[in-house]
Amino acid sequence: MKRIAAIAVLVFTLFAEVPGLAQSASGSDPIAAALISPDVIMTHQDALGLTDAQRKAIQSDALSAQDKFASLQWQLSGATEKLATLLGATHVEQDRAIAALDAVLALERQLKHTQLTLMIELKNELTPDQQMRARQFATR
Fold it and tell me: Any idea what the CATH number is for the domain that residue 75 is in?
């Protein structure tokens, strides 16, 4: 149970950092409305009636994504620091700054890709009835 709680905290923190994938289903984001937040699934796993097989699959998906998130966040921090350093100069070398921006954007894309992949995997683990109930929990 502690392991599930730790994963829930990590996933919630990671998803809260990237706009668009962290919005609730009640917002106007059609992508968020179509998916179910991992924290909703983890917080209401008993009420959703998750089977042991579903719990194991969801934990496996979350742990796999966790490794990718950690690596990408380290890389993103370094790339962002490099961009900030370039932009902080009294004379900005535009070509280098734009190349550094491209590196930051590429890493952000990979993060969002990993997040969306996880959310799809989690949704696919749920039955249609569980998905409906999870959406109800998300709107409360």
Answer: 1.20.120
